[in-house]
Amino acid sequence: MGVLAWTWIFVGLSFALYIGIAIWSRARSTKDFYVAATSVPPVANGMATAADWMSAASFISMAGLIAFIGRDGAVYLMGWTGGYVLLAMLLAPYLRKYGKYTVPEFVGDRYYSKFARVVAVIAAIFVSFTYVAGQMRGVGIVFSRYLEVDINTGVIIGMFIVLFYAVLGGMKGITWTQVAQYCVLIIAYLIPAFFLTFMVTGHILPQTGLGATLVDEPGVYILDKLDQLHQELGLKPYTAGTKGMVDVFAITFSLMVGTAGLPHVIIRFYTVPKVRDARVSAGWALLFIALLYTTAPAIAVFAKTNLIKTVNNKPYQEAPNWFKKWEASHLIAWVDKNNDGIIQYRAGAPFEGSPKFTGEKGEHGQLLVSNKLTDNENELYVDRDIMVLANPEISGLPAWVSGLVAAGGLAAALSTAAGLLLVISTAMSHDLIKGIFVPDISEKGELIWARVGAAIAVIIAGYFGINPPGFVAQVVAFAFGLASASFFPLILMGIFNKRYNKEGAITGLIVGLVFTAGYIIYFKFINPAANKPENWLFGISPEGIGTIGMLLNIVVGWIVSKVTSPPPEHIQHFVEDIRIPRGAGEAKAIH
């Protein structure tokens, strides 16, 4: 059977599994819908959290990102995994002890302010829609390539699948579906990695293969070989980083606190039975995430090496079959600048901006683009997303492996989309309808609003998937900066400083957000030409500025809290209650 047949089989079976789980675990109460009745075992919650976090970006894009930026890609590995250490130690157990449903609800109660709760709702919705648009687009791309349907059709199919199990099952249905999706995505990610590692180095584990020698060139290490290939092409050595130490630290820390402050991740720790289980499930989540994240660098290295070896300096007519198939998806393109019919991959961009195709072909059969050509020798455009999705075909693996990867990519995108949509739904029904506008609404009415909110969120997400804004990729930095400068400081100070009051929290939040948003908007949208290290504050890029925004939030909030009235006494008792274990009393001297 071919790739298409295997893809239909794996995708069809996985979708049937997700729908079956949704029917089995449908929500019958608001507690089911919001927090899965706080009945999820820690190991299962760790799997669901891992699936919730590892989106299409982690599954499809991260290895591609590392493949093209080399050592600097380590900031994403360290930041996105390190955030779970912060969650386990500083946030998860205390929020679980708080015992309600949402992060905005905690913010509103802790800072005794409806305004603070509304600001938290707005931030949660913004961050969630930023991510969910990318997930739905990822679903469309996978369907387009592997099932040979239009991207928009793929997005609509994904909408209906997510709508079914998110609306029917709520958090309960989503949790158990995400457990299944984690199993699908991690198997789909690891099996090609095992195959590829063995073919290139003779090792089985990608983590050890990354430091091994080549099978076809004994004594030559894979990283040395890739460095050599890069230098021959006029590129910087793969293992040579270009970012300054301060920027590396700032980006890593911003990603860590941004991860720990993301509402769709935090809400998962409300679903476990006990406070201790929140910390345990964070540990399991870190382990499950690490399986993929420690494999990604190896996939990046092997895929980049194979890409250069199999395509560069080859006549287009002799290009491998996978190359021409992926050209149709516009994730790879060749522009024959010197009209010699040979694919030449060198340093620099082949043309300005993302490729815009004319639909015509040149005399050598290459796709033609309408973009202005850049003045360098590079003729090959390679989208980062191709490195994982095309990896099985680049490496000559069996067709069923490609089908499995397609199912894994869909599982990653759909699992995160469902978690984000639930955050949006909960923010609308529980934090706005019940918390602000209709406090005495019945449980049945609230559940109806939650499902209506989920349906509205799916429709809006589908629209952005079909009509993505041109700056979606850039807004990812905005989302992490926003989470770094908003949720994390609010929750951290709310738990560990009972003197921190609403005036300090709101002032710090505004200062941190305005600074972070202004910095990112200026360099990413207003004046991108100035986005260079010499123009950055302290040498910190827009991707890392959330670290400064977080510190500003905390410092300003602490100062304002010191010069204004302390929180009411019952709020101070509330802080002590969630921070100190039940049954613990004051320390007594031993005589």
Order of helices and strands: HHHHHHHHHHHHHHHEEEEHHHHHHHHH
Count of helix runs: 24
Q: What does the radius of gyration come to? A: 25 Å
Q: Helix proportion of residues, in percent?
A: 55-70%
Mean pLDDT metric: 82
Q: Which class of the largest domain in CATH terms?
A: Mainly Alpha
> Which fold does the CATH topology of the largest domain refer to?
Hydantoin permease
Computed structural class? mainly alpha
Which CATH architecture of the largest domain is right? Orthogonal Bundle
Q: Strand tally, please?
A: 4
Oligomeric state of the chains present here = single chain
Detailed description of the structure:
With 591 residues, this protein is mainly alpha-helical. Helix 5 runs antiparallel to helix 13 and helix 7 packs across helix 8. The model is unreliable at 583-591 (pLDDT under 50). The chain has three domains: 3-302 and 398-468, Orthogonal Bundle (Hydantoin permease), CATH 1.10.4160; 323-394, no CATH class; 475-580, no CATH class. The protein has 24 helices and four strands. The longest helix has 51 residues, at 151-201. The radius of gyration is 25 Å and the shape is globular.
